[in-house]
Every structure is written in C-alpha cells, then in structure tokens.
C-alpha cells in the first residue's frame, strides 16, 4: 500500500510576481488562475521603479502543493520574470487601502468618528447622511474595521488589493537584478 503525503491545510498565500510591463499580461495571468480553478482573493498591479517591469501581488487560498503548482504554471508564462510566495518567509510587510462609506446621523456621527479614531482611519468625505472613511493597514485589520462599522450601516466598500514586499534589504526585484548582473558578467567573461 502506497503511503500518501499529508497535505498542508488551505491558507492564504501572498504571491509576488515580477512581469514584463506589456499589454495583455494581466489578462493572461488572471486567466491562468481561473483555468486552474483558483479564485484570486486580491490582486494589485503596478509599475516598479523600472518602467519595463510591473509587480503583481496576488492573494490566493490553497494548500502549499496547490500554490506550488500555480507557481510552476506562472513560471511558464513568457512575460514572468520572477515569482515569490511571500508567506513562505513570514518576513514581509503588507498594506491595503480601503474606502468605506457609512450611514450616519447627527446622533451617530460622534460614535462613528470614535470607532474611526480607534482604527486610525481618516474621514475623507462627510455629508449629512454619510461619512466616507479611509483606512490603510493589513487585510485583517481592514476586515475587523468593517465588522465594527456594520451596526452603523455600511453603504459601500472599495478595497485596493494587497501590496506586499519582503522586509529589510534585498527582495524579489533586488535578487532578480543581482542574478541578471551575475549572468551578464559570466557571459562577458566567456566572450573575453
């Protein structure tokens, strides 16, 4: 009888992907996730300090084995430069921005602003019937903030998606650029 490896439990994985900053890359990568039955929980994309490279921060839920499969599929995409599952190191910072519009009356405004102050949220729009608050923090704190606001009556929520980087010196882009420099140096040495 063959012994089965015990599979890790499902959990959220924050995957950082450097891609060529080209038309259609986002659609192809999102399609790849969908084709494999993965729901993208959060997606944030933007250019890096190198205008030819974009960083995608993708949050998916799955086992380590499932996410490893996704990473292998990502690495087959021509436009993908580098991939890292940040949750493997546990040494990364993440932030997400949320705008939340909440019903308010003259009577509830003080309590609502007290909750906002406790979470360090900022009131960015105020009318006689609503307040729009902005909060930038980790995903768990944003979700907790929404829970606290529910009794007031949430009208709308918009979340930016997670942005994440390794802590300290180095990181995905730094290590990739170092590998490129080493490869170029090796090739130049071979030519000479």
How would you sum up this structure in a few lines?
This protein has 192 residues and is α+β, with helices and mostly antiparallel strands.
What brief labels describe this structure?
alpha+beta, single chain, five-stranded antiparallel beta sheet, 5 helices
Question: Can you walk through the features of this model?
Answer:
The chain has 192 residues and is an alpha+beta fold. The protein folds into 2 domains: 11-91, Alpha-Beta Plaits, CATH 3.30.70.260; 93-163, Alpha-Beta Plaits. It has 5 helices and 9 strands; from the N terminus they run E-H-E-E-H-E-E-H-E-E-H-E-E-H.
Task: Describe the secondary structure blueprint for this structure.
Elements: E1 11-20, H1 25-35, E2 40-47, E3 53-62, H2 64-75, E4 80-85, E5 92-103, H3 109-118, E6 122-126, E7 130-137, H4 139-149, E8 154-159, E9 163-166, H5 172-191
Antiparallel strand pairs: 1-3, 1-4, 2-3, 5-7, 5-8, 5-9, 6-7
Write down the Rg: 21 Å
Alpha plus pi helix count: 5
Count of distinct strands: 9
Average of pLDDT: 86
CATH class category name of the largest domain: Alpha Beta
Strand content: 35-45%
Largest sheet: 5 strands, antiparallel
Work out the count of structural domains: 2
Uncertain segments of ≥5 residues (pLDDT<50)? 1-5
- State the separation between the terminal residues, measured CA to CA: 58 Å
Please, what is the CATH homologous superfamily of the largest domain?
ACT domain
Q: What's the architecture of the largest domain, going by CATH?
A: 2-Layer Sandwich
CATH topology of the largest domain: Alpha-Beta Plaits
Which overall shape is indicated by the principal axes computed on the Cα atoms?
elongated
H and E order: EHEEHEEHEEHEEH
Bin the helical content. 25-40%
**Backbone structural class:** alpha+beta
